[in-house]
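Hey team,

Filing this mostly as a record. A colleague (T.K.) asked me to run one chain through the structure pipeline before their review meeting, and I want the input and output archived in the tracker in case anyone asks later how it was produced. No errors, nothing strange. Just documentation.

Input sequence:
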Amino acid sequence: MSIKPKWQRTLDLGTLIALSLVANYLAFLVRFEGLIPKRESTLMIQMLPWLVSIRLLTCFPFRLSDGNSQFISIRNLPNIVFRVTVGSFISYLLVHWVFNSAIYPRAIFPLDAVLLLWLIGTILSIQLIYHEAVSLRLSRQALSTRLFLMVSVLIATVCVVVVLIDVNRVKLPYDRSHPVIYDNDETIDVYTDDYLMALASAGDIKLVGLISSTSVAPYNKWVQPMDCETLLRGRANGVANARSSGLINLPDPVCGTIGHLRKPASGRIAHTLPLRSEGSRLIVNEASKATAAKPLVVVMGGALTVVADAYLLDKTIADKLVVAWLSGNDNMNGYNTYIDGWAAYIVLEKLKLVHFAVGRGAIPYVPKAKLLQLPDTNLRRWMTDKYLNLDLPGDYDFDAAPAISVMRSDYARKGKRVSFSHWTTMWNNEVPIFKDDPNGKTLVVTHTSGDVATEEWWRALMNPLAYTRSVVD
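Output structure:
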């Protein structure tokens, strides 16, 4: 039974709308490697009605929806390409000139066009095979051959799309099932302690250590000499407030390295004198319990001193731990490297390091005012009262990137392997610089998702399971 022309046109119209929607969505998936940020996702949805309307306007005058079987021909391929290209060009003008939307990704337009052409080609190929099978009465073998070729092309195309989505996707050497130690200097300039404690309390991670470490003046001109008790007091206060708010599974904080590792005259790592801190011994102890298959993860927001010191105490732990860290810069010439350049070099050369070279847009957005949405506990008051000079912590959890990566495998997007290149000077201190090296021991994460980070941070702190009981003084 044949379909009436107007119903054929209606069917073609619906098909064109569906293909336009699918092509646009696939274009965003490819552009953002399978994980579309919230801002771009919202923009995609807002612009879809306009873009689909443009597709319809540019296709109908050129009889794209005509059910005539003569349309199914290679001779019409230039016309199809022309229609799709015109639609993409008008869409670009509408988005970037009429709506003046500078944040709409330009790469979407060519990607959308190519994917739409592929989808239209697939539909036309199916129609062509059906037409030939009916009108030419193809043999079963000839029909099977055509179907096999078309399915093969489809599978190959899907594989290409998957590769495009997955290319350069970072595969981190750890996840939430690994034991975790956290080391940092201050507690009142970030919220990373609070995030990790919420994870531990809810049973999301096994937090086996909290360490406080820093280098001091004159080597680190930004931090005046202090004793271990002074540094520990802040972290101990955070743990006490968390415990009084119902959080459990929290280890007692211990003192890490106060000072820096000194580069020996020989320039050889083996000749470095260790500092032998309590935190260093804790890392050795926990790493000894781990395995190469499931190493200890040392999440760090400051200098790499304590984990380098642990390596100096026991070199057999090198394969049983992974360091997740950020330096505050794209390379290693950031503050966290400056405060102990020799320790950074030791870790770069001897340990498995995942370095997060990310900016403000890739970390959790934590405005002070929104903290009032957290459960009314001592922990919340501790967090809202946090303040250090330079207006920290501000509206972001600046040290959270390595911690977020433990929970969310979709947080890290792109990365590269690097190895030691040379030394440079930063504020009169020597710091190591790395170079791209496909065989390097260190993985540098260059792109992450701020949306994932923010979503995960708030999920953890709002999780009722983190608060086993509510104790408010």
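Quick notes for T.K.: The chain has a mean pLDDT of 85. The CA atoms of residues 284 and 314 lie 7 Å apart.
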